[in-house]
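Hey Z.,

So I finally got round to the heme C thing we talked about over coffee. Here's the setup:
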Amino acid sequence: MATALVLGWLGLACPAFAGPVDRQADALRAGGDLHVQRRFAWDMAAAALPAFEAWPGEGAAFAPAGSRPGPTGIRGFDRAPSARAATETALAPVIAYTLYNAAAFEHLRRYRLYSRPELDHMRATATSIPDFPRGSAILKSVWWPIAGDRPTAMPVWDPDANPPRALGNPYVGWPRVVAVVPPAGRSAPVRLAFAGRTISGARRIDLAALYHVRLDDGLARRIMGDAESAKVAWMVLGRPLRAGDQLALVGANLAAREAEDWVWAALWWHDRPDEGPFAADRPDGLRGVWRNYLMQTAFDPRTPTEADGAPHVAFNPWLEARFPDDGQGGGVVSNCLSCHLRASYPPSGFLPVTRGPPDAQADPALASGKLRTGLVWSVPLHARP
Ligand code: HEC
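And the result:
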């Protein structure tokens, strides 16, 4: 199965591959066995990490017709000013960048899903955009800035130390912070301050324990040109990013159209990656630095239910944990599918967090006249006027 995934995502699969793979993931959803689902999701992650470095990013995906694609992966970071949902920035800014594999990218471009006039046109005659092809995969990557020459504070999500909070659990409030040490900062003293706290006794983590990318001048400038990302740099480093700094991959949200409603997986880095339920079922196929990431998955907005019978939970500490509780629970009890099934154009708010399947009758996101965008939120949010 992992082989079929890899081949599919490279665009090499013969059509015969698609059938069995699809049916398998849809059957796993119906089966509701979390460990079996986790094994599938881990294989999916193994196929995407680090293949995503060769995928075009949101800049190219939502560029005007005729644009020439730039570099792939995070090195291609390219964002028009204010192209981001302001709600997210207000909750806790992150350096996030979304990458689309060849199948997903070509679909976006072929049907001009980057264009609001095109979406308006579709909306007049259809209730949904053309289906993304099986084998499509999209990865939203989250990066933490690390100074090139000294240890840098980085929060770590420990579930037990982060009980749900009504205002959300943004990373500024996570109790534990580690010191990430770049090669050139090994002899520098560890003097850490973060989010108004002076941190002493932080565990030292070699940068090599995280997947990371060194910034050159051009990339540092492009990232600083994005208001949300610039906020992160000022907060963490107290200065703009510059050549020689590093970006460490702290989290990623992955969706792959291996099933009708895609298969969803959240990955995030941890310094004790072999402990707890989010380490379970990790396959041997994941190697090196990728073994330092934890994972949770969603195949369905409700199942398999939690121990108390509540709908299944799957969230990324870096992305969804910050969402506040406005009645149905905050981001730490959210589920990828509960929210992504609501993706439609023109966009309704993606907050507050809802649980279980969306209410087809009462949810404004699914009202008549809306164009459903194949569970992909960036289409309604980032299509250009
Ligand atoms: C409460 C709503 C919500 C929840 C829950 C949520 N997301 Fe998203 N997600 C969004 C929004 C909104 C965007 C677009 C953000 C942007 O690019 O500005 C997005 C973007 C993405 C993307 C890029 C493709 C796209 O849809 O634009 C992926 C992949 C993704 N999310 C995966 C996940 C995964 C995996 C989970 C669960 C672990 C998850 N999401 C949970 C709202 C949500």
